[in-house]
Amino acid sequence: MAVPAEVNYKRLLRQNIISNSSVLVRKSLYQKYETPGDDMHEDFACWLKILRSGETAYGINEPLLIYRLSTTSKSGNKAKSAIMNWHTYRNIGLPVWKAAYYEAFYAINGILKYRKLR
Questions:
Q1: What's the confidence (pLDDT) of residue 89?
Q2: In a 3-state reduction of DSSP, which class is residue 5?
Q3: Alpha carbon distance 19, 100 (integer Å)
Q4: What one-character-per-residue DSSP string does 76-93 give?
Q5: Phi first, then psi: what are they for 58, rounded to 5°?
Q6: Considering the chain, what is the average pLDDT of its residues?
Q7: pLDDT tens across 81-109, in order?
Q8: How many helical (H) and strand (E) elements, i.e. helices and strands, does the chain have?
Q9: Is the pLDDT of residue 6 over 70?
């Protein structure tokens, strides 16, 4: 999948395309929007809050890391990951109807993405 040159808040709501392992972010922004909580995707919540404030993320379409999939990782269980994604949307303040709308994108993107890996 090609990485977009720029990512804004609305684009990121549809799918978390920012890999936490490859992010460079000003420490002050990270500290301001850091999101603790073990029942959600904390990094995704942080990126959404930063981009909602008007910042833009920029992508580099080069492999910067090797990502290993594990069924025992925090997001390896897709049902648990979907629940965590829901909690992320609710944590950033999306109303239920809007969280459900974007959760549908999450489910569809997940099916398409992981279907190719089997």
A1: 96
A2: coil
A3: 23
A4: TSHHHHHHHHHHHHHHTT
A5: -120, 135
A6: 87
A7: 899 999 999 999 999 999 999 999 999 98
A8: 5, 2
A9: yes
110 alpha-carbon distance from chain centroid: 12
Q: Are the CB atoms for 24 and 70 separated by under 8 Å?
A: no
3-state DSSP assignment of residue 6: strand
Check residue 13 and give its pLDDT.
Answer: 96
Q: Which residues pair with 57 in a beta bridge?
A: 7
Residues 6+ apart with CB under 8 A from 7: 17, 18, 51, 56, 57, 58, 59
* Strand, coil or helix: 114: helix
Rounded mean pLDDT, 70-81:
74
CA distance 78 to 53: 29
Q: How far apart are CA 28 and CA 118, in angstroms?
A: 40
Q: Residue 48 in contact with residue 12, Cβ under 8 Å?
A: yes
Gap between the Cα atoms of 59 and 14, Å rounded: 16
DSSP bridge pairs for 27: none
Amino acid 9 reads Y
As a whole number, mean pLDDT of residues 43-60 equals 94
